[in-house]
Amino acid sequence: MKVAVVGATGLVGGVMLKVLEERHFPVSEIIPVASSASIGKELVFNGRTVTVTGLAEAVALKPGIALFSAGAAISRQWAPVFAEAGTTVIDNSSAWRMDGHIRLIVPEVNAHLLQAGDKIIANPNCSAIPLVIVICPLHKRFGIKRVVVSTYQSVTGSGMKAVRQLMEERQGIAGDKAYPHPVDMNCFPHGGNFLPDGNTTEEIKLINETRKILNEPGLKITATVVRIPVTGGHSESVNIEFVNSFDLEEVREIISQTKGVIVQDDPANNIYPMPLYAGGKDEVFAGRIRRDESVPNGLNLWIVTDNLRKGAATNAVQIAEYLVRKGFI
Length: 329
Known about the structure:
The chain has 329 residues and is α/β, with parallel strands linked by helices. The protein has helices at residues 11-22, 55-60, 72-84, 107-110, 128-142, 160-170, 201-214, 248-256, 275-278, 309-325, and strands at 2-6, 29-33, 42-45, 48-51, 65-68, 88-91, 103-104, 120-122, 144-153, 220-227, 234-242, 261-263, 284-292, 298-305. The chain folds into 2 domains: 2-124 and 312-325, NAD(P)-binding Rossmann-like Domain (Rossmann fold, 3-Layer(aba) Sandwich), CATH 3.40.50.720; 128-154 and 187-307, 2-Layer Sandwich (Dihydrodipicolinate Reductase, domain 2). The strands form 3 sheets. Strands 2-1-5-6-8-7 form a 6-stranded parallel sheet, sandwiched between helices. Strands 10-9-11-14-13-12 form a 6-stranded mixed sheet. A two-stranded antiparallel ribbon has the order 3-4. Strand 13 and strand 14 form a beta hairpin. The longest helix has 17 residues, at 309-325. The chain is globular, with a radius of gyration of 20 Å.
């Protein structure tokens, strides 16, 4: 099983390599791929030194799987080239997510949609993944009428330059800026680019991708994306209005029984999800589960996950694992 990681020198690409190692994915040959500036750079995978190669060279090696995390422009150009060569591409960018012919997959929710002929598979946005994992079983049981979600997103979601900005600000160093404002000791409601209607591209991604994954194109959902000065993961404040009445203990039981979710909900002892402790873990953490008495059948909860792992790299590797188990690759 030859596996290419496109964007191997980036934040998510590096975590993809790490997750492949940790989960003992059946890799016979790893092919790290990056931009021309990184070609020839050496990385370590499973204790062995491997050399970064270019995209054309990687295609010629005919990997069985290519995990892409190099941005939408690279994905739009090169994913079809890999697919034409027989490689199954799992793409972490936004390039293919809303394409009607491409499946947008969170294994715990809709892996059953995958087929042997799917050569390009989209990995969802790092905020949509934890959201749908938690709300999907609740939707099946009670029916969701409306969702309001506010995200509190780690600077790691913007790449190495953003992390460097945060660390340099904390050291009083004036360096290149990934954001239009200071991020340390600050937060700002700005993720992606602003659109004419006042939403940002990150907010629209979260809305549209949630609808597609749940197969609910008419789902009423609104989002606000906020960037905060942490590196451990993304947090989400989620308010749900259900169609049907619910028992709060049943809600807790459903969430606690959901694969990949850990409930941390003991406010009396200050136990609730936090990015500080979600970092480096693959689970989605849920807490502050309580009724919203301001609307009929209202529920509030708080979700945290490591955006580089389950929000990106781990989800992609889990898709690859499913394909292998099914014999599609």
